[in-house]
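Run: sequence + tetrahydrodeoxyuridine -> complex structure.
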Amino acid sequence: MNHAQLAAAAVAAKDRAYAPYSGFHVGAALLSEGETLYIGCNIESAAYPATVCAERTALLKAVSEGERKFRAIAVAGSKPGADGDYCYPCGVCRQLLHEFAGEDFEVIVARTATDFRVHKWAEILPFGFGPKDLEG
Ligand code: THU
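>> structure
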């Protein structure tokens, strides 16, 4: 699956968002090493801090299905009906993704299915604290 296909999947996943409080719809498409695609959307709560971002929805689905290695995640976020700007993962999502992100892991931020940027993981979370820091 290429970058454009992942971007398109993230844009489509915005339609699944449950975001009655912010009105900001986010979709994520996470590709495993074995090329299985996991889709996520943001899921908000009337108790606001219980909200789960689209990226973590996708990651939690995948990890709970037994996945541990991933190639890339695409993210798209906007108010409904608008293309919006590039939507980058929040700090909490960056930290949880870091747990599973290898050196080749890529982040695609998509405004539309054809307008997207591709980043290496080290650009998204430089100097991150992760599993390697607990070794030895
Ligand atoms: N949100 C995500 O799902 N992913 C991001 O990368 C940024 C923020 C969600 C959380 C909340 O439901 C809404 O967007 C506004 O913060």
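>> summary
DSSP finds four helices and five strands in the chain. The pocket of tetrahydrodeoxyuridine is lined by residues 19, 22, 24, 26, 42, 44, 51, 53-55, 75, 77, 87, 89-90, 93 (CB under 6 Å).
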